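My current task is to audit a protein record that another person submitted. Alongside the sequence sits a line of tokens, each denoting a local backbone shape. Please read both lines and tell me whether the tokens look consistent with the sequence. Do not assume that whoever made the record got everything right. Thanks in advance; the entry in question is below.
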Amino acid sequence: MTKTNKKAAFIPTTSNGVFCRGDHKKQEHVVCISLNGANTVIEKRVVTVGFLNADQVHPREIFSDAITERAASIILFHNHPSGNTNPSNADIAVTKRLVEVGETLGVKIHDHIIVSKDSYTSMKGRGLI
């Protein structure tokens, strides 16, 4: 079963408006939301801006603030400016690497959600996490 929402009823909004419904960024933005043990948001932050690839999204960048904040888990978001929210091979590879590192650190990745102007895709919903 594919979890792709064509009419994004839920596109997460960060405090700085990185992913507002109807927004269309021209570059990929990676956002990390840190959660405590009760799944309450601790912090939301932009981790990187540019193209998502294994070299640019390093685990230390994703997890350093989450560890400092003593987060129990995180949710990752990034946008696809093309509008196609299907995970690329790079998206899948980066996510698998981050899940492995998170398991080692004790910080669970609940999901990695790819958003566009009009839709989103949950990598967990697709069975990729």
About this structure: The chain has two helices and six strands. The CA atoms of residues 36 and 71 lie 5 Å apart.
